[in-house]
Amino acid sequence: MAATVTEYCTNHSNDVSDDMKELWDWTVDEFEDSDKMSSPLQGATMQFLAQLLGVKRVLEIGCYSGYSALAWYESTKQTKAEIVTLELDPKMIRASQRTIEKYKIGDRVHLIQGPAQDSIQKLTGTFDLVFVDANKEGYEGYVKAILDKKLLSPSGLIMCDNVFARGMTISTEANPHLLEKVRPYWTECGKALRRFNTFCKSDPRIDTILMPVYDGVTFIKWKQ
């Protein structure tokens, strides 16, 4: 049912570009864990939000194959937004560099290699949109650092992906169809994300909404 609904929504939403379709197909063919990549519908959603917010600077924590970076790039041509993307995994750094070169987006996409927590500490200025899609045990530390350093602009938005951890955040019994070989990984992610959700709910500086879309998406903004 979920797959049917997703297909229907995808067919009745904005299409992503041919470049994004090509990159998505390449990533699926190239990487066994490509299910970690944003779906085409989510890519279209991200572009919709970037255009709605008129963002001029984007930070993403976790680049994977560069699909989301390409999405941000295409959707911010009018504002010529700077896109700063952080990645640690050498394999995904190579894939992201391939994307940046192949689709000629290096004029505005800047890939920073290394542990995200260290990279965040070196960032300056503010970002209108922050996309968090990296190691799940790091979410709380990443978001806290962004808030502590005031890297989020006054009207900015933080978007955190995979907050359901394939359902394991809600309950270890929530997804009986989850493959056994990845169940331990997502179970540990679920534990970390439960702590993250508690942090978001209790931090007095922010407003937060956890949406039951995709694999769970949390939106965070400064409290007004």
From TrEMBL:
Keyword annotations of the record: Methyltransferase, S-adenosyl-L-methionine, Transferase
Gene Ontology biological-process annotations: methylation
InterPro entries: Cation-dep_OMT, SAM-dependent_MTases_sf, SAM_O-MeTrfase
Keyword presence, Transferase: yes
Pfam families per the UniProt record, alphabetical: Methyltransf_3 (PF01596)
Key word Transferase present: yes
Superkingdom to which the source organism belongs: Eukaryota
GO MF annotations, alphabetized: O-methyltransferase activity; S-adenosylmethionine-dependent methyltransferase activity
Family affiliation: Belongs to the class I-like SAM-binding methyltransferase superfamily. Cation-dependent O-methyltransferase family.
Protein name as it appears in the record: O-methyltransferase
Organism (species): Massarina eburnea CBS 473.64
Lineage: Eukaryota, Fungi, Dikarya, Ascomycota, Pezizomycotina
